[in-house]
Amino acid sequence: MDQTDQEIEQIARAFFVARHETGVWETASRVLKHEFRLYARHALRTLEKKQEQIWVEAQSVAVMETREAA
């Protein structure tokens, strides 16, 4: 399992525990685990998109500040 798979698994487990407080991840059905892994992948993609957006905005601000200073 590579790091991304490990991250997805950890996030999926966390979502599962948050949703099913009395549930045990190891005994959950394959279908349920798959569902929570999809949630985890979606969460990671959303986070990556937000980080990219923040990076682009920060670069734009830096360019504008550089032009104003010149």
TrEMBL record:
This is Uncharacterized protein. It comes from Microvirga terrae.
